[in-house]
Amino acid sequence: MKLTDLSLSRNRDCPSDCECKSMMKHIYLRRAEVATRLKIEPKTLANWALEGKGPPVVRLGGHLVRYELGALIAWEVGESAGSAE
């Protein structure tokens, strides 16, 4: 799956029991991929993680930082809802 394919997962019209949402729980993105998606620098994501901000981080093996796609999308939806207020 390409990063550009992942943008299709932002569809908010997808029902909550949709099969695609359960599949997204097992897709992990690297910091560079998330930075590209959010149009920010990877260092910004690293700083956010240290400050407890930004999308939730998953540490694999104690040192590999990854972002679960489902959690990232939920964070994006929350951020966009917060900016609309």
Describe the structure.
Strand 2 (58-60) and strand 3 (64-68) form a beta hairpin. The radius of gyration is 13 Å and the shape is globular. It has 85 residues and is mainly alpha-helical. It has a three-stranded antiparallel sheet with strand order 1-3-2. It has helices at residues 3-6, 19-24, 31-38, 42-51, 69-83; strands at residues 28-29, 58-60, 64-68. The protein has one domain: Arc Repressor Mutant, subunit A (Orthogonal Bundle).
Which series of helices and strands comes N to C?
Answer: HHEHHEEH
Q: In terms of structural class, how would the helical and strand content be classed?
A: mainly alpha
State Rg: 13 Å
Beta-strand residue fraction: 5-15%
In round numbers, the mean pLDDT is: 81
Largest sheet: 3 strands, antiparallel
